[in-house]
Amino acid sequence: MILIVSFTDNEHVRRVTRNLTRPFTVVDTAWFPSRLGLTVKAGAAGFEFGFRHPDGNDVDLLAVGAVWYRRLRPLGLDPALADGVSRLFAWSESNEALLGTWYSLECFWMNPPLADEAAQRKLRQLQLAQRVGLNIPETLVTNCPEEARRFIEAHGPGRVIRKAFRNIAEAPRETALVEPVDLERIDTVRFAPVIFQTFVPADLDLRTTVVDGEMFTAAIRSAPEHQVDYRSGLGSATVTPYRLPDDVAARLQQLMDLMGLTFGAVDFRVTPEGGHVFLEVNPAGEYLFACDRTGQPVPEAIAACLERHDRERS
């Protein structure tokens, strides 16, 4: 059986499940513990554990051969827990039980929870990308205003971008060029670390979706006003299939292996000189915006991967 840990109302999930022929179930962490039951039995007779799905069906977790672990929602505590201490305790206990469940599932994971957690950290990504020989932008991460000023002045205003570690819905931040006026408020860096990188001029932006060794790359050609961050100009961009050079693809696979990832959505920039610069990998990145315009069968590849590994274990 295939277990999908995600949202039931997610289009990326729906597109994959349409291609599944083996039994599967979707579990949303927001259901736990108020709507999703968990029972574990361990003793001399052995070990068994499973979920009681909100639809009333029991899910034998020992029968799971493959897990797609994609984008978790916060745990859903019962509203009857009114005071803060009770809610904190219930959240802590629920989180411990759920993490223990994931770590006890000895099957194929896309991606393993511990690997997924570590791989989301941009500093670790850059460290390993450089180690395998991928080109990366000159980078500074700091909450020291004097260090930020030194880096920007060394490269020149208008030639450095700043970006957030994580783009949260409550405080969205686009990647943007650092302009001379930004130096006037550089002291605000002390409030939280900022990622500064040299701006990489782009002939093309690339989104490479890696699925268990298969690579699907889309080239994104944006209008000049979207050169810093292609996402805001996707509607007017030209998106076409692209083949990574063999040496870049080999280094990318090395990076995926070092991170322990079987899935990743990876961003590169192709410079006007033809160089390929690694920007980041998203362990649960989106792919429909690219594959729907290139015709690349990413949902089918994910489904085939999950079924292949589930079949091998059954």
TrEMBL record:
Any Pfam family the entry gives: ATPgraspMvdD
Record domain ATP-grasp: where: 126-307
SUPFAM superfamilies linked to this entry: Glutathione synthetase ATP-binding domain-like
Keywords: ATP-binding, Nucleotide-binding
Coiled coil: none
PANTHER family per the UniProt record, alphabetical: BETA-CITRYLGLUTAMATE SYNTHASE B-RELATED (PTHR21621:SF0), RIBOSOMAL PROTEIN S6 MODIFICATION PROTEIN (PTHR21621)
Protein name, as recorded: MvdC/MvdD family ATP grasp protein
Origin species: Paracoccus niistensis
